[in-house]
Specification:
The protein is about 35% helix and about 20% strand. It contains 5 helices and 5 strands; from the N terminus they run E-H-E-E-H-E-H-E-H-H. It is globular, with a radius of gyration of 16 Å. It comes from Anaerocolumna xylanovorans DSM 12503.
């Protein structure tokens, strides 16, 4: 794999956890001498970027990516096989019902001509339906820089990492699309 010299990091952070991860990744890439542009959805104005790698980062919403991210990807020009990576963030991690949370985004990117070679899930303290003990939350936050470093190194090394979602989780993902209906987004 050719070396990565520039990265565009696009992220959405509902409650701030994903922004924390984006900041960690940005710091790691900068320390490695990589030029990085970072932008958060929703964008204020248009965005033009050129980079060796597109990195997308988002929290899991209703077993999927947030609608805002799908809309942004729809607005992208064709990717010309640009290398891309997709990182989702959840309080549960890579477990059911979250294993299909990247399928739609990856399919959408590939239909746009992007080459998604890497996907992963990072874990933050849960802020939906259940909560972790304060000690567990503190431990997750403490290990975050190491997890972000591992992900960054895997991406930069060109590691191929694609997962196979559980069939039941594909169903959960489809059911989660009900949240996209207009009554949920006035």
């Amino acid at each position: 794999m050719q070396s990565v010299k520039t990265i565009h990091l696009m992220f959405f952070s509902g409650t701030g956890g994903t922004a924390l991860i984006a900041g960690n990744l940005e710091k790691i890439f900068l320390e490695k001498g990589i030029l990085i542009s970072k932008a958060e959805l929703p964008l204020k104005g248009s965005l033009q970027y050129e980079a060796d790698l597109l990195l997308i980062l988002y929290p899991v919403y209703a077993f999927n990516a947030p609608k805002l991210l799908e809309e942004w990807i729809s607005s992208l020009p064709r990717g010309k096989k640009q290398r891309s990576s997709v990182i989702s963030v959840s309080g549960g991690g890579e477990i059911s019902p979250n294993t299909a949370c990247r399928v739609r985004i990856i399919r959408q990117l590939e239909q746009k001509g992007f080459h998604v070679f890497y996907e992963n899930m990072l874990v933050m303290p849960s802020n939906f339906m259940i909560s972790y003990d304060d000690i567990v939350s503190a431990m997750l936050l403490r290990v975050l820089p190491l997890k972000a470093k591992n992900v960054a190194e895997e991406i930069l090394s060109g590691k191929q990492r694609r997962t196979k979602p559980l069939a039941a989780d594909r169903l959960f993902s489809r059911m989660g699309l009900l949240e996209y209906l207009e009554e949920f987004y006035p």
